[in-house]
C-alpha cells in the first residue's frame, strides 16, 4: 500500500480512533468552552419568527434541488432569511436543559457558526452579520457592500455576488476540540455538510436557489468575517438567491 505523504493523508491516519488508544485523555469539565459566540456590542437585527411556511412535498424538494449559479436581483424577504437560518442551524428543542438544533452535531456541541453576507435582503443594510442562534437574531459585524471582497475571496466566482446573500460557515474549533481533540477536525466538516444541505433543501422549499462553495482563499474569507483563521476559520459557504 502507498505510504501516506501529504497533510491530508496524515490527517486521515492521525485522527483515526484506535481500540487500544480510545480511552486516552480525560475531558476537563471545568474548561468547557461556550456553546455560543456572541457580539454583545453589535447592532442587532431581530428576525421574524421562522414560522411554518407552506412548502412543496419533500420528494418534490429533493427532485428540484440543484446548484444554482444564475440569480435574479430580486431581494430576499427577511422572513425567508429567518426560516433559512432556523432550518440550517436554529434551536429546535430543549432536553435536560440542553438546547438542540434542527441539524445533528457531534456531541451536540454545535461548533459551526453562521454568518450572512447580505447584498439584497429586505430590511437589512448590506453588510456582514453573525447569526445569534440563542436569540434568533443577526448581529452586525461590518456594514457596507462586500460583493467585491466576497467574489475575490471565492476565487472570482461571480455568482457569489449576483446572489442576494451568502451564508458563510465557520468552525469555532475549541468548542469541539474540548471533547474530541484532533478528531474534532473531522466532525466540524460533517456538521457543516448537514447545515448546508438543510439550507439547500429549505431554500428550494421557498422557491430560492443555492450553490455550495468550497473553493475560496481561506485567509481572505476569514478576514472578510473578522475571524482569526486559527481558533475560528471558514469551512464552507453558500450563495442564496432567486434563481434567474
Ligand atoms: C463540498 C462542495 C464544494 C463545492 N464547491 C463549489 C464551488 O466552489 N463552486 C461551484 O460552482 N460549485 C461548487 N459545488 C457544487 C457542485 O459543483 C455541485 O453540487 C455538483 O456539480 C452537483 O451538481 P448539483 O448540486 O446541481 O446537483 C460544491 C459542492 C460541494 C458539495
From the structure above, extract its key features.
binds flavin mononucleotide, 9 strands, 7-stranded antiparallel beta sheet, NADH Oxidase, alpha+beta, two-stranded antiparallel sheet, 8 helices, about 25% strand
What's a quick, concise take on this entry?
Helix content is 31%, strand content 23%.
Write the topology of this structure.
Layout lengths: L6 H8 L29 E3 L11 H7 L13 H12 L1 E5 L2 E4 L10 E7 L8 E6 L4 E7 L3 H7 L5 H4 L2 E8 H8 L3 H22 L3 E5 L4 H8 L6 E10 L3
Antiparallel strand pairs: 1-6, 2-3, 4-5, 4-7, 5-6, 7-9, 8-9
The site of flavin mononucleotide has 9 residues, from strand 8.
Written description of the protein model:
With 244 residues, the chain is an alpha+beta fold. It has one domain: 3-Layer(aba) Sandwich (NADH Oxidase). The protein has helices at residues 7-14, 58-64, 78-89, 147-153, 159-162, 173-180, 184-205, 218-225; strands at 44-46, 91-95, 98-101, 112-118, 127-132, 137-143, 165-172, 209-213, 232-241. The strands form two sheets. A seven-stranded antiparallel beta sheet has the order 1-6-5-4-7-9-8, with helices on both faces. The radius of gyration is 18 Å and the shape is globular. The mean pLDDT is 96. The site of flavin mononucleotide (FMN) has 9 residues, from β8. Residues 66-67, 69, 157, 211-215 line the site of flavin mononucleotide.
Amino acid at each position: 500500500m502507498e505510504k501516506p505523504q501529504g497533510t491530508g493523508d496524515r490527517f486521515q491516519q492521525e485522527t483515526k480512533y484506535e481500540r487500544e488508544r480510545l480511552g486516552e485523555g480525560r475531558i476537563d469539565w471545568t474548561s468547557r468552552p461556550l456553546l455560543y459566540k456572541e457580539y454583545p456590542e453589535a447592532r442587532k437585527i431581530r428576525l421574524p419568527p421562522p414560522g411554518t411556511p407552506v412548502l412543496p412535498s419533500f420528494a418534490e424538494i429533493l427532485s428540484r434541488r440543484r446548484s444554482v449559479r444564475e440569480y435574479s436581483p430580486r431581494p430576499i424577504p427577511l422572513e425567508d432569511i429567518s426560516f433559512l437560518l432556523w432550518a440550517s442551524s436554529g434551536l429546535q428543542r430543549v432536553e435536560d436543559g440542553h438546547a438542540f438544533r434542527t441539524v445533528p452535531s457531534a456531541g451536540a456541541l454545535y461548533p459551526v457558526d453562521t454568518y450572512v453576507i447580505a447584498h439584497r435582503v429586505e430590511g437589512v443594510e448590506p453588510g456582514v452579520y453573525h447569526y445569534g442562534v440563542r436569540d434568533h437574531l443577526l448581529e452586525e459585524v461590518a456594514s457596507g457592500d462586500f460583493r467585491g471582497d466576497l467574489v475575490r475571496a471565492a476565487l472570482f466566482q461571480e455568482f457569489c455576488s449576483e446572489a442576494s446573500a451568502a451564508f458563510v460557515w465557520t468552525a469555532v474549533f475549541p468548542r469541539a476540540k474540548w471533547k474530541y481533540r484532533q478528531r474534532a477536525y473531522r466532525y466540524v466538516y460533517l456538521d457543516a455538510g448537514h447545515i448546508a444541505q438543510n439550507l439547500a433543501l429549505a431554500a428550494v422549499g421557498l422557491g430560492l436557489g443555492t450553490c455550495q462553495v468550497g473553493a475560496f482563499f481561506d485567509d481572505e474569507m476569514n478576514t472578510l468575517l473578522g475571524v482569526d483563521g486559527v481558533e475560528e476559520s471558514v469551512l464552507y459557504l453558500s450563495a442564496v438567491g432567486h434563481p434567474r
